[in-house]
Structure formats: C-alpha cells, structure tokens
UniProtKB/TrEMBL annotation:
Key words, A-Z: Signal, Zinc
Origin species: Escherichia coli O1:K1 / APEC
The keyword Signal is annotated on this UniProt entry: yes
Residues annotated as domain ZinT: 2-115
Domain of life according to the entry: Bacteria
InterPro entries, A to Z: Calycin, ZinT_dom
Entry protein name: YodA
Molecular-function GO terms, alphabetical: zinc ion binding
Gene: yodA
Length: 115
C-alpha cells in the first residue's frame, strides 16, 4: 500500500506526489542487488540515496522492474524508506506498482492481468 499518487523522474530528481503535496530529492545511484526470492525467481533492485538532509522525500529508494538486463519496462515497483537500504531489501510483502502515466486505465488492467 502507498499513498503516493504519482512519481516524476527526470535528471536524477525524483518527485513524489501525494494528495496536494510534492516532495523531491536528487538521488545518487548506490549500486544494485540481485535477489533470489522464495519462489526461486531472481530479481534486481537498483538502490538510490537522497543525501539532502533538508529533503522530506524518502532517504532511500529502490527500483525493481523484474528485468536484470537493460530493457524497456512496462511497469516498475519502488520501495522507499528512511531506515536503511538493507531494511528495504528485506521488504517482500508490499510492492507498490507504477505504470507510465500515458497508459489508459484499460491498458493498466491488461498489463496487470498479464503480470
């Protein structure tokens, strides 16, 4: 579950839109981790850190798009928090999913059903 309605990403700056409030930060790439899930499937998480102590955006974010090699993704999951990267890597229950804003509701449903 998340209360974030939209995420904007451009030039390393990530904006989080929730209700009528927007927070943002320039995130620095912090590497990646390949995870093996209980199912035996593998996934990758790309790690980023906000180093601006004044920002109200999450300190740590991780992207997962189910794709280990570079390729265009139809959706992605983002994990975010202020504790540690490791605590986010341990998150296996809550997978907020985001789609390109150009997709119609019907296209999002079709993509979700094929996922």
């Amino acid at each position: 579950m998340t209360d974030i309605e939209m995420i904007g990403i451009e030039d390393g700056i990530v904006e989080f839109h929730r209700h009528n409030e927007t927070t943002s930060c320039k995130y620095d790439y912090d590497g990646y981790k390949i995870l093996t899930y209980k199912s035996g499937k593998k996934g990758v998480r790309y790690l980023f850190e906000c180093k601006d102590p004044e920002s109200k955006a999450p300190k740590y974010i991780q992207f997962s798009d189910h794709i280990i090699a570079p390729r265009k993704s139809s959706h992605f999951h983002i994990f975010m928090g202020n504790d540690t990267q490791q605590s986010l890597l341990n998150e296996m229950e809550n997978w907020p999913t985001y789609y390109p804003y150009q997709l119609s509701s019907k296209e999002v449903v079709e993509e979700m059903m094929s996922h």
